């Protein structure tokens, strides 16, 4: 099931994940990509269109910083608008997961009953 | 594929975008190779993970065209977006061609028709009163004004319909992203 609920869920929270990472500390695209690749199994190249989009939406801004090896690296940091977006998205996410969890817990008990009934 | 080959194909595929946009994009992917090399990953492995550079370029270009259309609703941005959409070369988009092209012709024809109705109305308004227009001077003037008003109103409706059609095409095109897909859809 390549386009199952899991993929849809991951797609939906990618932006939130990036905002959460940058909320903690500024970072460069490769670092963000490898963290996301481990956590939500995202193709590493997809980070660049996403960062570009977030930048043109005014959620992040860039600056150059010397790296130990090679040319200076492009770092991303949250703008005030980005921080606001993170707060609202996080609140939305928490409310959403809480209600889904509630629904699952509610459904779990009767489901077991039905199964027991079936076997009897 | 090695790093240089990947970047070359990417750059080639991005032709048509503004030069500074191309430089930005290529620099991002070049930096990606650098950072990956610092972790000891091979160029081939990174290129493999990034996907087909030509496909990547086509999708980035399409997205740039779509965003421009969303920023500026103009005939030229609509045209760029549609051309980029066809450039994606997805089979079901090409299957749509026999529908898209006649529709495009009809829309252009309707715009022309509205233009001529407007001009004809203006002609009747100005010339009518001085010629023996059936019904008299007032009929000619109101008739002419009425035609012009109708042409303007229908053009406005046509404009709304055209914007709707292009928006639908953009929505349809975005369903075809493979390489950049999750990133573009994530913000809804």
TrEMBL record, chain A:
<dbReference type="InterPro" id="IPR011991">
    <property type="entry name" value="ArsR-like_HTH"/>
</dbReference>
<dbReference type="InterPro" id="IPR052509">
    <property type="entry name" value="Metal_resp_DNA-bind_regulator"/>
</dbReference>
<feature type="domain" description="Transcription regulator PadR N-terminal">
    <location>
        <begin position="18"/>
        <end position="86"/>
    </location>
</feature>
<dbReference type="InterPro" id="IPR036388">
    <property type="entry name" value="WH-like_DNA-bd_sf"/>
</dbReference>
<dbReference type="Pfam" id="PF03551">
    <property type="entry name" value="PadR"/>
</dbReference>
<dbReference type="GO" id="GO:0006355">
    <property type="term" value="P:regulation of DNA-templated transcription"/>
</dbReference>
<dbReference type="InterPro" id="IPR036390">
    <property type="entry name" value="WH_DNA-bd_sf"/>
</dbReference>
<protein>
    <submittedName>
        <fullName>PadR family transcriptional regulator PadR</fullName>
    </submittedName>
</protein>
<dbReference type="InterPro" id="IPR005149">
    <property type="entry name" value="Tscrpt_reg_PadR_N"/>
</dbReference>
Automatic annotation (TrEMBL), chain B:
<feature type="transmembrane region" description="Helical">
    <location>
        <begin position="77"/>
        <end position="101"/>
    </location>
</feature>
<keyword id="KW-0472">Membrane</keyword>
<keyword id="KW-1133">Transmembrane helix</keyword>
<dbReference type="Pfam" id="PF22564">
    <property type="entry name" value="HAAS"/>
</dbReference>
<protein>
    <submittedName>
        <fullName>Putative membrane protein</fullName>
    </submittedName>
</protein>
<keyword id="KW-0812">Transmembrane</keyword>
<feature type="transmembrane region" description="Helical">
    <location>
        <begin position="107"/>
        <end position="133"/>
    </location>
</feature>
<feature type="transmembrane region" description="Helical">
    <location>
        <begin position="145"/>
        <end position="172"/>
    </location>
</feature>
């Amino acid at each position: 099931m390549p386009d199952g609920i899991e993929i849809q869920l991951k797609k939906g929270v990618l932006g939130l994940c990036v905002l959460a990472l940058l909320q903690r500390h500024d970072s460069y695209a490769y670092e963000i990509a490898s963290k996301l690749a481990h956590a939500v199994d995202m193709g590493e190249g997809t980070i660049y269109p996403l960062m570009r989009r977030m930048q043109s939406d005014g959620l992040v801004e860039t600056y150059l910083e010397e790296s130990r090896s090679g040319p200076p690296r492009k770092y991303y940091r949250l703008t005030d608008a980005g921080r606001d977006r993170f707060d609202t998205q996080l609140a939305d996410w928490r409310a959403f997961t809480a209600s889904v969890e509630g629904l699952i817990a509610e459904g779990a008990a009767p489901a077991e009953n039905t199964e027991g009934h079936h076997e009897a | 594929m090695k790093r240089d080959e990947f970047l070359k194909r990417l750059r080639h595929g991005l032709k048509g975008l503004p030069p500074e946009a191309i430089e930005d994009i290529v620099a991002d992917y070049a930096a990606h190779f650098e950072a990956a090399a610092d972790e000891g990953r091979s160029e081939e492995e990174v290129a493999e993970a990034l996907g087909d550079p030509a496909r990547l370029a086509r999708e980035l270009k399409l997205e740039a065209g779509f965003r421009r259309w969303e920023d500026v609703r103009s005939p030229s941005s609509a045209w760029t977006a549609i051309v980029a959409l066809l450039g994606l070369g997805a089979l079901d988009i090409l299957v749509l061609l026999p529908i898209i092209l006649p529709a495009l012709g009809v829309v252009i024809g309707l715009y022309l028709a509205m233009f001529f109705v407007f001009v004809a109305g203006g002609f009747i308004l100005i010339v009518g009163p001085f010629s023996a227009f059936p019904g008299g001077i007032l009929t000619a003037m109101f008739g002419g004004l009425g035609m012009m008003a109708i042409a303007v109103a229908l053009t406005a409706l046509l404009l709304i319909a055209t914007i709707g059609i292009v928006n639908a095409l953009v929505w349809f095109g975005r369903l075809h992203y493979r390489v950049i897909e999750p990133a573009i859809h994530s913000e809804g």
